[in-house]
UniProtKB/TrEMBL annotation, chains A, B:
Recorded GO MF terms: DNA binding; zinc ion binding
Gene3D superfamilies linked to this entry: 3.40.1360.10, 6.10.250.240, RecR Domain 1
InterPro entries, sorted: DNA_Rcmb_RecR, Rcmb_RecR, Rcmb_RecR_Znf, TOPRIM_dom, TOPRIM_RecR
Originating organism: Aequorivita lipolytica
CDD domains found in the cross-reference section: TOPRIM_recR (cd01025)
Residue intervals of every C4-type zinc finger in the record: 58-73
Name the record gives this protein: Recombination protein RecR
Amino acid sequence: MEFSSKLLENAVNEMSQLPGIGKRTALRLVLHLLKQPKEQSQKLAGSLVKMRENINFCANCHNISDTKLCEICANPRRDEQLVCVVEDIRDVMAIENTSQYRGHYHVLGGKISPMDGIGPGDLTVPSLVEKVKAGSVRELIFALSSTMEGDTTNFYIYKQIEPYNITTTTIARGISVGDELEYADEVTLGRSILHRIPFESSLKNS
Amino acid sequence: MEFSSKLLENAVNEMSQLPGIGKRTALRLVLHLLKQPKEQSQKLAGSLVKMRENINFCANCHNISDTKLCEICANPRRDEQLVCVVEDIRDVMAIENTSQYRGHYHVLGGKISPMDGIGPGDLTVPSLVEKVKAGSVRELIFALSSTMEGDTTNFYIYKQIEPYNITTTTIARGISVGDELEYADEVTLGRSILHRIPFESSLKNS
């Protein structure tokens, strides 16, 4: 792509550094900003810099938070002995949306992935292990995505905390509510039969 | 979407003002920036603000340019009497890419669209009419997209410059090179038969 303006080219190049944004999309977004009042570009730019500079992570669960402790960790009515291990804030938001969970979280900030050079030390794994060691966790729920990296991470953490004898569980994998059996993939369907639950339990939450 | 951080929420809200970027995508982009060094957010923000504040439009063709006259208008080897009317800089870039055009451009900055409240005065139509009036155009090539708004804009300009007796042409519509006839839409195929050209001419450029 050849640009008639260095300013435009810079903006497009920076924009296309974002994941999933190619040069064409970046140009479309940048031209849109050009048609809008200056204030919009300033507000966008300001909000990004302000966020990046001042962002804070909860001292307990490492979730993004504007306060030292996030709202969830600061809430005395939530069970702090029950800890759900997730990858990032999006998973926290998704689980919170269900209104089915009243425990705490532990946000890892990623998954162990030797291919991408991400080891346990790059994540918040050590602080999770410390928490377990200190005896402040009764049950740990693994809620990472079930990919190879997710399974590796689960297993690594499991091995680290094994000596401390706490309950470890993992979220149920199975057929989505409302999905037709015939379209489910074999692995999921297989797991859902293997880990079947008493029929009466299925009546509790609908 | 409920956010645990006002800073994060602001950034996501601003990002999702961009066309085609929903809240989920905005969150993904913003979380990506959080994982990158601060410099990346600063450079992105800086490039957007700098572009929006200092952007300049060519005094002659209204294309985005860092100089008073854009490179095309400043090039003495290009035919300034031949003017191609386009919507925005993306069309200029696309036509320049073909290396088939040696004239000037006139960038309208949009199309006439009463539905969106865009009239000829919001575009650079008046300055184009002035240019024709001053006798500095021999041929005007309409190269707007063939939508209702494009056709309306073409026709409006055509009516304005009709008294000045210059040549007006429009880019050829037809079957794309390499496309199969059976998959072409009827309107395009119909036009391509109606506006057929001598076979010898088709041999000139390939």
